TrEMBL record:
This is PBP domain-containing protein. Residues 31-256 form the PBP domain. The keyword Repeat does not apply. Residues 1-31 form the signal peptide.
Amino acid sequence: MITATVRKRLALALSSALLLSLPLWSAASHAETRAPIRLATTTSTEQSGLLGWLLPQFTKETGYPVQVMAAGTGQSLKMGENGDADLVMTHAPSAEKAFVEAGFGIEPEHLMYNDFVIVGPAKDPAGLGKLHDAAKALEAIKDKGQTFISRGDESGTHIKEKTLWQAADVKPEFAGYKSIGQGMGPTLTMASELGAYTLTDRGTWLAYQSKLDLAVLLEGDKRLFNPYQVILVNPKRYPDLNTEGARTLKNWLVSQHGQQLIGDFKVAGQPLFVADAKPQ
């Protein structure tokens, strides 16, 4: 038989349990009602695994879900220009500068960097391992009649590749040049299957290298530096943007906490990116 005293204690315990659970329920409900943030970014940030590392933590801490639209830098910036994204994360400084100067982007922030490398078959028939100049490396690939796989998608990597062909004073129109219009992962896979050369960001290379029959043959040229920025799309052009959420994400990424998480991201024990945002 339950006495009055026991009933009173049970009622108090139940009330306490409900009070303790209320903040958790409220927080969950609040998180579910936040408008999603549309992030247009490069395939390298997705295929390297970086976004899979960062964004779940961001959502957990802020309640904002993030919709990732991964494409080449050119396509990502075009999504920003069309108001189809709330912010962009890209790696083509000249294109990003034009994007901001044209009034499509605001509040650009340096985020991180890594570098590009030229990879190819370990036997290296073009002799790239003896060179230190990326432009001369591409010239050697052409002169030795080797195959080069280009992303051909106006991505940051493709833009960098075109500047290197220009520096080499070579038109990429030779028989072995194949432009495939694909992201970095498929480009690396095709290069591996064909025993060809290609230019890749180091992050995607490190994420894919265990699956590929390729080796890094040229690195360290200062022209292979690969910086990333995060830029808000201008709400004056598109008032319906989720600018509040986008700014929350941008500020989180460049904060000390976000920068630490970027620096902590590793594949096979190697960091893929160096965080370099200015202190907030």
